[in-house]
Amino acid sequence: MNAVLIPAAADLIAYIVDMLDDETRDLSDCLVVFPGRRPGHFLRRRIAERKKESFVPPHIVSIDELIDELSAARHPGRPDLESIDAIGLLYQIHRALPRPLGGPAFLSPDAFYPVGAKAYDDLEELRIEGVDPRSVRDVQPLIEEQIPPRSRESLQTLAAFYEELYPRIEGLGYTTRSSRYWDVCGAITESDFSRFRRIILAGFYALTRAEKKLFAAVGAFATAQLIFQDGMGMQEKLSQLGISAVRDGLAGNGASGAPDIKLFQSPDGHGQVFALNALLDRPDEHTVIVLPAADTLFPLQRHCLSRFDRETYNISLGYPLVRTPVYGFLNDLMELIGSMEGGRVYVPRYLTFMLHPYTKNALFHGSAAATRMLLHTMEETLGGTRTRMFVRLEEIEEEEQLLEQAALSIAGDGTPAAVNELRDHLRSIHEATIGRLLSFTDVKGFANRCIEVLSWVHDMTTARDHPFFSPFAQSIIESLEAISRSLMGGIAFRDPRSYFTLLRRYLEGRYQRFPGTPLRGLQVLGSLETRNLAFDRVFVLDAVEGVFPQTGSEDSLLPLPVRGALGLSTRRDREDMERYYFSLLAAGARELTMFFTDNGEKQKSRFVEQLLWGLQKRDRIVETRPYVRPIQYEVNVENPPPAPIRKTRELIRLLAARPFSASALDAYLRCPLSFYYSRVLGLSKRDVVTGEFEKVDIGILAHAILAEFFRPMVGRDLGEEDLDTARMASIVDRQFADAYGSQETGAGQLLRSQIRSHLTRFLTDYLRPTLRESPVTIIALEERLTRDWNGFTLAGRLDAVQRRGRNLVVLDYKTGHDRKSHSINFQKLDLHNRETWSAAIGTLQLPFYLLLRPEAACAMFLLLGRTRLDRSIELPLFSDEEEEHRELPRLQSVIHAILQEIVSLDVPFAPTENRKRTCPTCDFNAICGTRWLTR
Questions:
Q1: How far apart are CA 176 and CA 170, in angstroms?
Q2: What are residue 859's phi and psi, to 5 degrees?
């Protein structure tokens, strides 16, 4: 066997060029086989640079391509079986087993798919390693004590799959990668390579059993040459293969001496990219950026590569399709369809989908601006009714106020649009997206509908102008086409969500390969895509443990003891292979720069540790600090208080002319600056439909229920017969349906039941005993009052005014239970010390209501949120008449002083004195820069 071992620092491509360097210009009778396809591009270029004239290149292939060629020559016309078809066959076998894997858990195709994908990977590995199907069953007694019972069942099922799958595949006239390998490598003859005068197999490290047979057969040919490179672990591999390789110490064209190593520690991935950007002065073909983690690709492209011409760099690594915005669009649509009930869309999911950048940029009269305005108007409209969780598409399309408001906004932007045009446009978006996924008969029909949706996105939106949309969309469409023509294409599900699950699980294993050529400029490669290549400058990002090398549990149905017993590769073997190829890349470089994160969650890669240890031994230094350069951010942690806003005379005039409410005075008391944003500028937190039951909405609902219940009794005495719990329950149900729709979730049913129970107990446990103590007359409900007082206009709405005995009482319902936040601490209140006011006063509502209703004897809150609904829910403003006579004038003085302060030119709108208490829950903390504060 003619085998040679060249140094780790040697340039493998240059070494092969030297072997092929002869007088002839026709090298087509030479065969060169690499582990992958990428080195072939570099070899052709090197030969061209050496010859400097036209030539016929050697036949350069990857090992997979060689096997495919030899298999096709022996069995022409036998197509490759798609993985989804193989999983479909496994599903058929699985359904017929007397004891299916997982019992009933995996009987549906969508549930079985991830298990089937793992099983097929295992079976392909078993077959390419030449493991006899009987060995899978026979190995169990040998390792039974080392694996749990459930894993033993999986092993038996896998053995049944193995025995039945490949005969079925062969019977259908298909081949798989493993079957082609074993078919070819098990019967190699010299005639298979008769047209080649020279055969070179170069750059291999780990070999399957099938590949070992190929190497043993081809290595015996007189025309064959095996080339190995002396990286970490190669000596042991050659010993295991029984190959005696001659060392070629004269192999040159590589780096001279050890590379210049630079190590950078960053607090996060973006810091690594920024540091690389500062170091990368030129994007040339002698430089490679290694990305072990695809997550870093887009930060790298945006913050580093974007400053270079696109023609000066090449990205050649796989990016998961499930992380692309095209998948995100499809996933939002599937989430929306899956959340529908009774033909109604779930509003939060609907808005998420409609506001996706692809959807909201649908073209209207050649522009996307009108669609954006329409959909953001819709967001405001639906957000303004947060309790509206389910709605029919037809209701949205016929929402006249929404369409009219959108038409006004669009016209103001210079693009006139009629309401009918906008309605038709909105309906067309619904039909082209949501409508297409509402009905289909089987998996094939579903896949084809998804293709139609993506085609609409390409043709009718600006998505095609977005970076990477076309390659991402094309890859997903190819995946959908594979699903459509697969053996699963005819399967029909009862639940549409099963189609979505199947698609998600299929796409989880698919990757986008970026277009480009490895011969152009700087290369961006994955960690194993650098195999057999040499670069002068090597930059490695994300050099952290678990990523480089990749570690973690085996993604296999075969337990580790079984893999060992059957002679299959383990995680350790894959880590060794990654270490070997990295050692070659490092040895061949002149500059090696590694970036890593080392903190509580991540730690530097073992490869970095090895480099550090080498430097320490070389310099006889124990400390690692001299070799690691920290990447630090300049962060200004100063948090100055927000600046006050000065008033103008025009603003004072406007403020003095407006009515003031109790809530406005409370807002000013909490924070004058917040009052300015909300009450002067009119800013407010955007209403968002979250699908959750907000406290404010529950409060509004409770007020509406109580107002409807008591409205027929206004103007007369209440009797116990009026406290009809059945009527209260009926009102709760109707009001809840009006607020949240008739389609209730489990959470909605629970909330409705809680409100019904609580308000029923309010009647029986609080109001009935109250009636027995004294007569109660309802004077007014939700009474709106306005009063001129000391030169100011006061306005408010009183929840209820009752006469209890001879006293007039103002009531305000609170759905909370906290007494402190609604009370006033008169002992802390000092009229002469302005700083005590906000600390002592929880709210000015009740004294403000007594100004609006001066004839009232008292005012109180009813805390409906308390667990016990007896007289303890009453929170009166004053404890007795003596306190009222003493404190009411003081509170009125506070109200008057606040009003005067608001309209005073000399008092700016200043930030609150107690930022820690006020800012964390304020809607404007982002404007003030106080979002960092916590209570």
A1: 9
A2: -140, 145
Written as six digits, the tokens of 207 are 């070999």
**Tally of CA atoms within 13 A in the half-sphere of 304 that contains its CB:** 28
Q: What are phi and psi of 288, to 5 degrees?
A: -130, 140
What is the β-pairing status of strands 792-804 and 776-789?
A: antiparallel
Residue 201's DSSP bridge partners are 33, 226
Residues 230, 217: Cα–Cα separation, whole Å: 23
Give the residue carrying structure tokens 């009166």.
Answer: 876
Tokens of 755: 């409100």
Q: Which among 448, 442, 452, 454 has a CA at the least distance from the CA of 330?
A: 454
Task: With beta carbons less than 8 A apart as the criterion, state whether 455 and 415 touch.
Answer: no
Phi and psi torsions of 864, nearest 5°: -70, -15
Give phi and psi for 578, each to the nearest 5. -65, -40
Element (H, E) at 12: helix 12-20
Q: Using an 8 Å Cβ cutoff, are 453 and 432 in contact?
A: yes
- Tokens representing residue 119 in the block: 């099983």
User: Residue 499: pLDDT above 80?
Assistant: yes
Where are the extended beta strands (E) located within 457-548?
511-513, 522-525, 537-540
Question: Which residue is listed with tokens 């590949």?
Answer: 211
| 637 has pLDDT over 70 | no
Note the pLDDT of residue 830. 93
Contact of 860 with 804, CB cutoff 8 Å: no
Q: What is the pLDDT of residues 452-475, one digit of tens each?
A: 999 999 999 999 998 789 989 999
| 466 and 325 Cβ atoms separated by less than 8 Å | yes
Cα-trace Rg, the chain: 38
pLDDT for 151? 59
Is 5 in a helix, a strand, or coil? Answer: strand
Calpha distance 109→88 (Å, rounded)? 8
Q: Which two tokens stand for residue 334?
A: 């599937």
Residues paired with 810 in a beta bridge: 801, 859
Residue 142 has pLDDT above 60, yes or no: no
What gap in Å lies between CA 301 and CA 286, rounded to an integer? 19
Task: Work out the pLDDT band at 12, boundaries 50, 70, 90.
Answer: very high
Alpha-carbon span 206 to 208, nearest angstrom: 7
Q: Which residues contact 224 (CB under 8 A, 6 or more apart)?
A: 1, 2, 199, 200, 201, 218
User: Which ranges of 176-246 does DSSP label H, i.e. alpha helix?
Assistant: 177-185, 209-219, 234-241
Contact 847, 810 (CB under 8 A): no
For the stretch 406-420, pLDDT in tens is: 999 888 877 778 999
Cβ neighbours for 260, distance < 8 A, ≥ 6 positions apart: 590, 591, 592
Q: Is 472 in contact with 515 (CB distance < 8 Å)? A: no
With 0.85 as the threshold, say if the pTM is over it: no
Burial bucket for residue 426 (CB in 10 Å: 0-12, 13-18, 19+):
buried
Following DSSP, what letter does each residue of 435-470 receive, concatenated? GGGS--SSHHHHHHHHHHHHHHHHHHBGGGGSTTHH
Residues whose CB falls within 8 Å of the CB of residue 302, separated by 6 or more in sequence, listed in order: none
Q: Do 390 and 346 meet the contact criterion of CB atoms below 8 Å apart? A: yes
Strands 537-540 and 287-290: parallel
What are the percentages of helix, strand and coil residues in the chain, rounded to 5? 50, 15, 35
229 touches 6 (CB < 8 A): yes
In angstroms, the Cα distances linking 798 to 757, 763, 803, 821, 873 are 25, 20, 14, 19, 18
The answer for residues whose C-beta is within 8 angstroms of residue 657's C-beta and 6 or more apart is none
Neighbouring-strand partners of residue 876: 860
CB of 463 closer than 8 Å to CB of 358: yes
CB atoms within 10 A of CB 160: 20
Question: Cα separation of 321 and 359, whole Å?
Answer: 19
Q: Please state, in angstroms and as integers, the Cα–Cα distance from residue 5 to each residue in 40, 231, 701, 711, 752, following that order.
A: 20, 10, 81, 96, 78
Pairing of strands 659-660, 313-316: unpaired
Torsion of CA 350, 352, 356, 361, to 10 degrees: 50
